[in-house]
Every structure is written in C-alpha cells, then in structure tokens.
Amino acid sequence: MSSSSAGHGQNNSRTDEPGADGRSIVTRSPEQTFALGAVMGGAAVGGTVLCLFGDLGSGKTKLTQGLAAGLTVPKTYAVTSPTFTYVNEYPGRLALYHIDLYRISSPDELLDLGWEEYMWADGVVAVEWAERAGEYLPEKRIDIAITITGTDERRFDITFNGEHAAIDAALISRTHER
Amino acid sequence: MLVLGIDTSCDDTCAAVLKDDFEILSSVVSSQDEVHGRFGGVVPELASRKHVENIIPIIDHALSSARAALSDIDVIAVTRGPGLVGSLVVGVSAAKALSLSRSIPLLGINHIEGHIASSFLTPNRPAYPFVALVVSGGHTNLYIARREGEYMLMGQTLDDAAGEAFDKVAKLLGLGYPGGRAIESAANRVRGEPVEFTRPYMKKGSHDFSFSGIKTAARNVVAAAEALDEALIGRIAAGFQEAVIDVLVSKTLDLARRESIDTIVVTGGVAANTRLRTVMDERASKRGTRVLLPPKHLCTDNAAMIAAVGRIRAHEAALNNLTLNAVSRWTI
To answer: Which residue of A125, A169, B105, B279 has the smallest Cβ count within 10 Å?
Structure first.
C-alpha cells in the first residue's frame, strides 16, 4: 500500500513540521481509512500505544486493519472486531494487540484484562473506546479522535503525547506525496 | 464413561457432566437465574476475577446435580481457546489441578468445536459431512465438517461478528442488551415497511461475511432521521435483522449446494434468534436440505458442548497434561 494512495490528507490549523503535537487528516472512504492505518503501521515502533476515540461506525476497526497491514500481519489473519473477546493478538513485524473496551463498565476491570502487560509489551497497541480506560491510559501515547463528517467521510484528529517522530514523519510525507 | 466439561472462555463460568451417548447429566452456567440466586449478585461483563470466585462452586454444582463424585469422572475436557487468556486460564488451571490431584485424563478443547459438537447433544444428530454455521457475538464462521474432528473453515467474518452487529445496532436504536433479543422484539412490533439495507455479499462465490458496513448504514439512517420514534426503530430493527439473516442463510445454503451436502448445523448465541431459525428452516426445506438447530440453551455458551467434544476425542485425553495452556486465537 503506497502512502500516496491514502487519499486526501489535509492539515487544518495544525502545523506541518515534524515534532508538532498533532495533525488532522480527512479520509473519504473506508479504503482511505485503511491506507491511513497502513502508513502508521509501517512507521510504528515497539511500545506505540494508539488510543482510538469515535462513535459506532466511525472506522476504528477499519483503521486498525490498515495498521495490521502496515505491521505486516499475514493476510491469513482476518483482523476482526475485538468487542467480544476484549483483546485480539496478531503476529507481524511487531506484535499487534487490538483491544476494545466497549464492554468495560469500570476502568478497574482493565486490571483483570491484563491491561498493564499489554501496555508494557514491546508490540503495538490499538485501543478502541479508549476513553473507558480513564486514568489507566499511559502518558506516552497517540490519541486519534475520529469524527464522522459525512456518509463516508471521516476526520482524524491525531495528537502525539510524547515523542512519536517516526509516525509523525510518515504522516507528513504521506501528505506531501499526495 | 463420564466427562466433566469446563468453559471460562467468555463471560460465563460453565461446567457440565456428560454421560456416554451424549446424555447431559448436568449443565451449569453462571449467569443462569438459579445460579445467581445461589451465589448472589450479577456476573459482571468482564469476569476474569469472577471466574476465579465461581469456578469451584460451579464445578461442585455440576457434579452434585449429576449425582456424581469427582472419582466417577473419566475425562476432564476444558476450553483452552479461543478467548481472553485471563479468563481461559481460570478454567484451564482448575482442570489441570483436578486432573493432577485425582489422576483424571485431561483434554484441551476448542470453544468453536464445542459449538459444532452441541449438535450431538440432541436426538437428531448430524451425519457427516455437514455444513456448520457458528454464529455468535464473537464469531461468524462457516465450516464443512468432513468427519469426526475434521473441519474446514470455508468462510468467516472479516470485521464484526453477526451477534456484535446486533448488539451495536440495538445500542444505536436505544434498545437493551443483549441486542439480539431486543432487535428481534422491536422487529416483531414493526408497523410499516422495514428499512431496506444493502446485503453485504462480498465478491461472488465468497463465503466470508462483513457486517460492519450494515452497522454503519443503520447509523446513517439514525443520523439522517428527524426523530427516532418507535415506528422508525421498528422499521430499522426489522430491516437490519432481515438483511443479516438473509446473508447468513444465503451463504450457508450456497456452500451446502456447491459441496452437495444435505445437512446443515446452525449454532452459537445468534442461533437462538427465532427469525433466523425460521428463515433457515424454510429456505433449506424448500431444497430438501436438513437443518439441525440445537435448542437455544445449547446454542449459547455452555460446558455440555465442551464435554461433548471431550467425549468424541476421549482417546486423546492424557494424564500429566501440565503443558496445556490457554490460547487467545485458535482457528479450527
């Protein structure tokens, strides 16, 4: 998946310089959302935690499917929603832990889930419904707030908490290649 | 022969005792009202810790209901995957401890194979080969069972499981949990035309499923509506349910037709949906295909189905099976 196929990137009010604390990107189809995830997966380093915030149907699982592709998770694995299992694990260039907190009723349940082990693992973690983790979210993380802006259009407001230069650079070059 | 089955793969703690010839002597599920009354409280949704508290009382309850002692048990069958490792490990550890301390052969079981084997717990058992649709909150898998213990995965969901889509659309519509039952009863009350949803058939000949798009389509209908009144809720629920069931039934029947197989087993939590049972039965019988739908309490998670696999695979059970571990992903 080449980053140029990731479609229309836009930088709104945020700066386009590496090291900036965030950027906004708009996708106009599920395929573009997948491609955006693949760019991030291609650049992710061990220990990266991506927190996904967005309504039902906003594309959290689609973005994570792209992330898996970028992490070279074999295509024989269907990257499916972890809502019922809470956690799905996939082997790739780095292990991908796909966590879904949709069915969590209190942040304390995270301890039962083995949350801390995933946060300290050397893989890449994608957390859907991350707002339900409350104070258990690690300080160093990437927040991705997804807004449904049209039937197929989604806006991704990406905020870097701590140093995430590789992913940031990949997102910038993706925008410039367009 | 008596088989003790144990399952802690998801929300419920389950234990069961099965006699020869697949006769269920007891089957205990922690969320059953009777069990709630016995142990008090409501089982929380994330239940790893609750499994630890439940596991011994539930096993005891299963044994005493079966009027059996641990010394009567010939094989212990425990679910080792797929599921949440933190939950699975509770059942696996208990099973290993019982096996070691009482010298009872032990067997690790795949939860999905358990769902398929639930069809052997009924008087009308399937004859091989048969097509099996396992459809629940966590799975939508389509298999061909060629012979005992030999399954070919022919299709699966590429995003959301069917049961999950039911739950999430129920949530969108402000209906209760579990979503399957809520959608079904809202659909039954529908007045007026159901909202039409595009069937996600994927590419021609594919037996894979995708229910994420239909969930998003339902969301778009809700977002575009001026008011989400009861009439619209019913029309969305009915249209959504019909679309999901249509795809499930069509793909299952298509696989059976292509493979010239005349027996279909449908199981898993969503197989408790009355409308799915009716449509599957009607459309299959038109083509002379036999559909086996285990009773609803055997479609949802239980340990009798795990014991049934233990009964089928009893010859593989081993003593000192202490390397048996829990696995989060395990495809059969």
So the answer is: A169
Residue B5 near residue B25, CB atoms below 8 Å: no
Distance CA A59, CA A53 (A): 10
CA of B163: which chain A residue's CA is closest?
Answer: A84
User: pTM, whole model, 2 decimals?
Assistant: 0.87
The answer to whether B224 contacts chain A (CB < 8 Å) is no
Q: Which residues fall within 8 angstroms of residue A119, CB to CB, at 6 or more apart?
A: A49, A125, A138
Class of domain B2-116+299-316: alpha beta
For B127-293, the fitting CATH number among 3.30.420.40, 3.30.470.30, 1.10.533.10, 3.90.1150.10 is: 3.30.420.40
Domain boundaries, chain B: 2-116+299-316, 127-293
Residues 91-120 of B with CB under 8 A from A: none
Do B2-116+299-316 and B127-293 agree at the fold level?
A: yes
What is the dihedral sign for C-alpha B108, B131, B212, A9? positive
Contact at 8 Å (CB) between A94 and A120?
A: no
Confidence of residue B205 (pLDDT cuts 50, 70, 90): confident
Residues of A in contact with B219 (CB under 8 A): 55-57
CA dist A19 → A15, A23, A67, A159, A164 (Å): 9, 11, 21, 11, 8
- The overall average pLDDT reported for chain A is 86
Cis peptide before B82 (omega within 30 of 0): yes
What pLDDT digit, counting tens, does each position of B110-141 carry? 999 999 999 999 999 999 999 999 999 889 99
Q: Give the per-residue pLDDT at B98.
A: 96
**Chain B residues 171-190 within an 8 A CB cutoff of chain A:** 171-172
| B216 contacts A84? CB cut-off 8 A | no
Q: Report which secondary-structure segment, H or E, holds B35.
A: helix B33-39
Q: Is residue B45 less than 8 Å (CB to CB) from chain A?
A: yes
Q: What is the pLDDT of residue A116?
A: 87
pLDDT greater than 90 at residue A67: yes
Q: Are B13 and B53 in contact (CB under 8 A)?
A: no
Which residues on chain A are in Cβ contact (under 8 Å) with B329?
88-90
Please determine, for residue A68, whether its predicted confidence score (pLDDT) is greater than 60. yes
Hey, are the CB atoms on B164 and A81 less than 8 Å from each other? yes
A149–B contact, CB cutoff 8 A: no
Put simply, whether A164 touches B (Cβ < 8 Å) is no
pLDDT given at position B1: 92
